[in-house]
Amino acid sequence: MKKRVLIIALVVLSIGSLFVGVSSITPADLLDFQSEETQIFLVSRLPRLVAIILAGAGMSIAGLIMQSLSRNKFVSPTTAGTLDATRLGILVSMLLFANASMLEKMTVAFVFALAGTLLFMQILSRIKFKDAIFIPLVGLMFGNILSSITTFFAYKADVIQNMSAWLQGDFSMMMKGRYELLYISIPVLIIAYLFANRFTVAGMGEDFSKNLGVHYRRIVNFGLVLVALITVTVVLTVGMIPFLGLIIPNIVSIFKGDHLEKTLPHTALLGAIFLLLCDMLGRVLIFPYEIPISLMVGVIGSGIFLYLLFRRRAYA
Amino acid sequence: MRNSTKLFILLGFSVLFTGLYLFQDLNGSYDYALPRRGIKVLAMVITGCAIAYSTVIFQTITHNRILTPSIMGLDALYLLLQTVLIFFLGSDHVTIVNKQVNFILSVAAMIIFALLLYRLLFNKGSQPIYFLLLIGIIVGTFFSSISTFLQVLIDPNEFSMVQDRMFASFNNVSTDLVWIALVLTTIVLLIGWKSIHYLDVLSLGRDQAINLGVPYESIVKKMLIISSVLIAISTALVGPITFFGLIVANLSYQFFKSYRHSILITGAMLMSIVALIGGQWVVERVFTFSTTLSVIINFIGGVYFIYLLLKESKSS
Amino acid sequence: MIQVRGLSKLYGKKAVVDQVSIDIVPGTITSFIGPNGAGKSTLLSMVSRLLDADTGEVLLDKKNIKKIKSGELSKKVSILKQSNQMNVRLSVKELVGFGRFPYSKGRLNEQDIVKVDEALSYMDLHELEDRYLDELSGGQRQRAFIAMVIAQDTDTILLDEPLNNLDMKHSVQIMKILRRLVDELGKTVVIVLHDINFASVYSDRIVALKDGKVVKDGLTNDIIQSPALKEIYDMDIHVQQLNNCRICVYFNSNIQGENDL
């Protein structure tokens, strides 16, 4: 898994992604800046590509950060309630702040996402269970609860079908003007890279961190803020994409170990590639209709997660 | 206070609430209202007992007080089945309209799923319980992705049929179903009761149980199947009440402070009867139907779950 | 009599226990010793059927233990492993009572109660008998578990590092009790020990494991000797005779004494 290979793969897939779609566009069409094809390219295809790459890289990194901080391979926004907390936050902002701007909605969702994740980390620190597999179990149940609270209020407000439609991860709506929020991921990713070593140290525990002069609480909270930020921007723009933060870091870890500074770029690249592949498959399988990305990743992601679990068990 | 006294108190409350529910404000309508209420009461008793029994034995086998059988993916499967039926066959198809057919289909699907799951996992030699559960949860998430996808596509009128299935309701239980469920539940309860004393030893942990001569693998398998069948019956009868079992099981442990499952299970069953009948009475007569009991229960159960998790710091 | 034939356990490609064959001599205390990762605990788990072996078999009185029903086996062989975490509220007496489960399936009769009392006396637990396990210290809890195993009244008792949480006084107490169980009641005890001095002073036979294989199997006095110990532990260990006991001094390789053996 060399960086070079990944980058080449990314470029190839990106180009592929740009030219797959209902309207057929060829590079030749693009030479004419006024043509309809170029319009589609600029308004839909290119933004879609950027959205996929940023979402894929972002969610994978979010998972990686969480796994470093908790020293557990199975923690991720999906298995720690972060996604579900975000969903709750979005519902709240929908119901209580219906006329708010995107930024305000994002802030509300962010607060919920952060609170949910912090609560989970609290729970995590109190559980002294030998088996690491217990943690995602708790996380998923915790997520289930948040989800049912959300569903309850959505039911009362009669918006369940609406919300599900809106929140379902779907790249087909990615157009110029709808995806720019994702650009926030870029500075977040850079910051994550700069702080990588500190996250690794914090993951070893409070005492260990103190010994090395790393301010434990601050770093953990900061890491979680980054995670919540990425999750919220992705969910608000694209919708919920499950499992990405779980499986990508795990795959990278098998080949490259756990030194965060080294594995961060690979994780981002692989995440983007994986999402691109899923997206292209989704567009092609029932052409000209699309399978939404959340379903594709949900299905393929579950399969990979199961495989990872079975593989781990073989060595236990 | 002795445990038997406590049991009698609970029994007293159950009788009290049953009486209240059945006879209050009857206005002489013995032909119509009484039988209808009677059936509802019976449904609540069956559901309450099934869930209580199922959860307690499940928690003993998993050596854990936080997990419940519904997280094995059974709830998600039920909803998926209903969604698929409504999506592909329409809400006026016999499988939806005819409650018996729907019941049998649902129970059969859930039981087959549970058996497949255990078969798959136990065939690879003895697996730790958590592994099994994690698989169940992932499969559950997988089902939910597909359900959500289909739900978004369903006609909004049809969707309200799906929505009805999302939450348990005692209001529209059919009489025949209740009798079928009663017979089935009683048979299963009796089969399980013979092995109750093994459960007492199981609470010491796997190693000790084997040491003391418990045929561990076969008992665990048997209990898992019983647990799943009971949950299948109650879910198919009234719908999913995911966290109810968690509440009554844990309250039973707190209240009875005994390791004897004969007491714990009976206590949990009585508590669930009190909670369901009492709760339904409050919802119907005091709040006049403005909210659904099961959703309240899920909500309370959810919050209680988080509280339990935070309290976990004591056990290690 | 327990016989082990060609027992192995593999994790991936690594053999944690490698073709082990030994006979447990009845009426003795046999200690399993060896460095970390030698496979002692794994071996014991397989002998007690807590763990499935990948190759080989364990015979009890010439019968393969896999063919003996767990309920029957639990009256002949008992095992106590290290970690005993539980979330059940049991009093010491109730826990020891569980030791009678193989016989009375949870309903204690008169004979059971007598056995429970005896076990509590042996382990000096009468004062604590009504206290709940989670109120006790690690060492007290360990003693309660050992009492339970005594109440189980099996011919063979297997123990996996039972002295880990115990202070000196109680460690000696346990070893003395084990000695009594063997000398007075004719039981057979197999015990995995870290501390070779306890093994030396109290056991009749020693089985030494290294890298999953048996490197020594014989009488205590034949094995507790510098050359043999060096083979097992890769360390210079001086053995001194003190009051009829062979004591190993390994803390510092410079310690030399007049009574080196």
Tell me about this structure.
The complex is a heterotrimer of chains A (about 325), B (about 325) and C (about 260). With about 325 residues, chain A is mostly helical. Chain A has helices at about 5-20, 25-30, 35-70, 80-95, 100-125, 135-155, 160-165, 185-195, 195-205, 205-210, 215-235, 245-255, 260-285, 295-315. The two termini of chain B are about 30 Å apart. Chains in contact: A-B, B-C. The interface of A and B includes residues 119, 133, 149, 168 and 299 of A.
Features:
heterotrimer; A: 316 residues; mainly alpha; 14 helices; globular; C: 261 residues; alpha/beta; 6-stranded mixed beta sheet; 4-stranded antiparallel beta sheet; 10 helices
Structural class of chain C: alpha/beta
Class derived from helix and strand content of chain B? mainly alpha
Order of helices and strands of chain C: EEEHEEHEHHHHEHEHEEHHEE
What oligomeric state do the depicted chains represent? heterotrimer
Number of distinct helices of chain B: 14
Radius of gyration of chain C: 19 Å
Count of DSSP-assigned helices of chain C: 10
Helix content of chain B: over 70%
What is the element layout, followed by pairings?
The complex is a heterotrimer of chains A (316), B (316) and C (261).
Chain A: H1 3-19, H2 27-30, H3 36-70, H4 82-96, H5 102-126, H6 134-156, H7 160-167, H8 185-194, H9 196-203, H10 206-211, H11 216-237, H12 244-256, H13 260-285, H14 293-315
Helix pairs in contact in A: 1-3, 1-13, 3-8, 3-9, 3-11, 3-12, 3-13, 4-5, 4-6, 4-11, 5-11, 9-11, 12-13, 12-14, 13-14
Chain B: H1 3-23, H2 33-61, H3 74-89, H4 94-97, H5 99-122, H6 129-153, H7 156-166, H8 175-193, H9 196-202, H10 206-211, H11 216-238, H12 244-256, H13 261-286, H14 293-311
Helix pairs in contact in B: 1-2, 1-13, 2-8, 2-11, 2-12, 2-13, 3-5, 3-6, 3-7, 5-11, 8-11, 12-13, 12-14
Chain C: E1 2-11, E2 14-24, E3 29-33, H1 40-47, E4 55-60, E5 63-64, H2 70-73, E6 77-80, H3 92-98, H4 101-104, H5 110-122, H6 138-152, E7 156-160, H7 168-185, E8 188-192, H8 196-202, E9 205-210, E10 213-219, H9 220-223, H10 226-233, E11 238-242, E12 245-249
Parallel strand pairs in C: 3-8, 3-9, 6-7, 7-8
Antiparallel strand pairs in C: 1-2, 1-4, 4-5, 9-10, 11-12
Helix pairs in contact in C: 3-6, 5-6
